[in-house]
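Workshop exercise sheet. Pairs work together: one partner reads the sequence aloud, the other fills in the structure field after running the prediction. Swap roles for the next sheet.
Pair: D.N. / O.F.
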Amino acid sequence: MFINLSNLRKPKLILFFRIVFVFLLGIVALSAEEIKQPNPSVVPKKDSSVTSDQSKPIQNPSPDQNPIPNPNSNSNANPFTNLFEREDNQRPMEIFNQVYEHRLMIRTGWGIGKLSPAILNETGPAWFQNSLFRQMTEPGAPLSIPYKPAKDLGLNSQFFDIRYGYKNKYEIQFAEDTSLGVYSRDLPASNNFISPRTDSYWASSFEGNRLLRFEGVSQHLRFSYTHPITKILMVGPSINFHRYTERNNISYGSYSTSRPEATVPNKVTWSIGGDANAEYSMKGILPGVYAKLKLKDWWEIRGRLELLDRKGNFSVLGSQIIQEVYSDGTSNLTGVVPAYGGKVRDKGTILNLETSFQYCRFSLDIGMIRQDVKRNYDTYLGDTIGNVPRTDYSSRSVGIGFSEMSTSIKHTVTEFYIMPGVSFYYDEDKIY
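Structure field:
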């Protein structure tokens, strides 16, 4: 059964335009805020002195309509002091809910997005260059020329984070983001190749690499500090101790037919399937800039830009089944083993934008994460081990991976998410 994907894309477009609309509202609100007159000072907490220019006293909300006690008196005399009359509320962005110094927030959520995986983007140019190198040691081996690169793939994402904040300036956050690839009949995760005719082989077309499963897990331990720039804007540095793991389940393909002039005439060599696991494990320390924009007491916009630089190891190990059919009608199945490994490095940026709505202790955050990565291999070693003649099929790499190490491969992830959360506050008076 086929599914019309155009209907599936509509909710994603609607979500994207809603996010854009919310950010435009934020810009309009910010512009309106700047042209307003300065807000009057907020009446301080009762156990401190007052130097406000406003001489008109604030009326006590009690029925007897008596004025509030002398500001120099002990605030404990009236335990029902309005929280909005505390002196620390004169700088509302430097304290949570204009009251509390400490906050513990827990969030979880889900998202959708797009993925352009490096494991597929490197296949086309690498296989083509490797097939050129093979001509030196295996003259007449078929070339692998990519003609249909892999498309961007769908993503389903899961999010979780827990953060502690002090005075809305200092923040420690642990966050985890798990991205899973989504594939369909109309959106295959594969690379297609053609092999031109040679003296020994007929021309052919085949699918060289298929991604069966993608799972990327990003873990972040962030330390941030934001400093008040204006009454509604805070900006500061952040540092991220980052760990990334990527698991790819892939299958290789190949197809060739020898000509009558070949040493073994009219032989068909077909890679009917396989299963290999390509795993990456990287970590790094990411500097960044973090900003908060307070539009309303219940509405905040946050943004973070980090410079990505992570490095580590990778390994590829699995099996590939190859069928050989001869001119007399006989055939046999043979297994070969692709085995590779080395050093890998990712460099790029991570951009996070989100708008946050808050009611009491509850919040709802809608945002976007964009990763733009260039992947490089510092070391790439390995081969495909087996008894099938190497000239009859196309393998991932040959010996030292000069092709893989010669270029940078793009890896991009775009995710839109929604995360409900709950907060617990604390100050010298109580826990809320």
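Discussion prompt: The two ends are 53 Å apart (CA to CA). What would you look at next?
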